[in-house]
């Protein structure tokens, strides 16, 4: 039995959920999301809760059970509260700024790097070395944050680069001089 799959998903008052077979459509104050789930799981509404159940007892159906429950729970959480990822920049001269909706990064290249947000994602720059990626789709927010981090990942010798807030960068010892 899946410990995650057994839990029901509470639906806040501001969120509406429509289930049509294996397709689920969630609409809330932040936006709306739609996803088609695998046929190995079924969805049912019980009052103001959603229950996800496997079709049979096969290992693949049980694996999809917990995954599907988490995907639907993230959809409900996203349209009601939203998600955010915080990124930090460390390095001399590394800075971020916004030009309109776009994020402009100066990270040691001979040029600046401009990143356009996909629909449903908003960038915030509280100070020049911090970036906040906000949105209602957890998958998209994580993918955009990973793309920003991939512009200049942290290097292990000095720790310069773009990293997630709270990420631990494993440092290496540099070369030693001759004696």
Using brief descriptors, characterize the structure shown.
179 residues, alpha+beta, Outer Surface Protein A, domain 3, 3-stranded antiparallel sheet, 3 helices, 36% strand, rRNA-binding, Ribosomal_uL6-like
Describe the protein in words.
- By secondary structure, this protein is of the alpha+beta class.
- The protein has two domains: about 5-80, Ribosomal protein L6 (Outer Surface Protein A, domain 3, Alpha-Beta Complex); about 85-165, Alpha-Beta Complex (Outer Surface Protein A, domain 3).
- Helix content is about 20%, strand content about 35%.
- It has helices spanning about 5, 60-80, 140-150; strands at about 10, 15-20, 25, 30-35, 40-45, 50-55, 85-90, 95-100, 100-105, 115, 120-125, 130-135, 160-165.
- Strands 11-12-7-13 form a four-stranded antiparallel beta sheet, with helices on one face. Strands 1-6-5 form a three-stranded antiparallel beta sheet.
- The radius of gyration is 21 Å and the shape is elongated.
- The termini are far apart.
- The mean pLDDT is about 95.
């Amino acid at each position: 039995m899946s410990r995650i799959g057994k839990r029901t998903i509470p639906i806040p008052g501001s969120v509406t959920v429509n289930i049509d077979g294996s397709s689920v459509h969630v609409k809330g104050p932040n936006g709306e999301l739609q996803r088609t789930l695998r046929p190995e799981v079924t969805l049912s509404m019980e009052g103001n809760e959603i229950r996800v159940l496997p079709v049979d007892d096969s290992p693949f159906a049980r694996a999809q059970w917990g995954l599907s429950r988490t995907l639907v729970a993230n959809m409900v959480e996203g349209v009601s509260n939203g998600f955010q990822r915080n990124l930090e920049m460390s390095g001399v001269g590394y800075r971020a700024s916004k030009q309109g909706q776009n994020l402009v990064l100066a990270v040691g290249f001979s040029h600046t790097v401009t990143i356009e947000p996909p629909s449903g994602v908003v960038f915030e720059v509280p100070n020049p070395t911090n970036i906040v990626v906000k949105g209602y789709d957890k998958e998209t927010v994580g993918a955009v944050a990973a793309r920003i981090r991939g512009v200049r990942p942290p290097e292990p010798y000095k720790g310069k680069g773009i990293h997630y807030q709270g990420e631990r960068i494993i440092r290496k010892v540099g070369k030693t001089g001759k004696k």
